[in-house]
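BUG: 3D viewer hangs when loading the predicted structure for this chain

Environment: internal workstation, default settings.
Expected: structure renders.
Actual: progress bar stalls at 90%.

Input used:
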Amino acid sequence: MGRRSASAKFMARAWVFPGGRVDDIDQERAAGLVVGDNDPAQLPWIAAALRETVEEAGIWLTESPRVEFLGDRDVYRILDESGEKFVADVAYFAHWVTPADLPIRYDARFFATLVTADLNPIPDLHEIDDAVWVRPGDAILRAQGQWLVPFPTHVTLEQLARATSAAAFMEMTKDLAVETVQPRIKVEADGSLRVVMPGEPDFDDLPEASLNAGAVAEAARIAKESGSRNAEFE
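Structure tokens produced before the viewer hung:
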């Protein structure tokens, strides 16, 4: 996991997984530069995940995995010049969409792969100022005080922690039906903000988007200042 830099406009100082948006070049190059037992429909997102892992943590999941600081260089140009490709069996296991009330939104897919080499991450010191390998259970414990962990990341860590090992988790993903999770937001009578997950009692009674965006924004501001885990989403 990596800690977002203090200067980040979104989720500053939060501990998250490497990742980012799918660029046009990921769409264009994915089929030719990603090798492995992967779902063809997910290849652009997988390519983006592997590229972002290089950019943020210096981890290259190529035929001979390695750690190499990227700096200002371009990932795909380096792959082309060296004749390398990304080589990884990548499992798609979660899909989160930001509540409609929030001003900054995302549509995020979560992926997992096995890494057998000893690859100590090198943070890029731009988006990520620290990066570590951490057991899911330990990350959950750190989120109780030391770490700011966004709500979807926390839920994903709980999902990972249910497996006895990384290999066991990869085995679990083979029969996993991924459902899109889009929480809704409730502003309580005291002005606090509560994340309501699909399936929880209040979920169906809440509109997908609040009719009082100002109240939601104010509740989010209060939650952020108080350090509530409901304050930020990944």
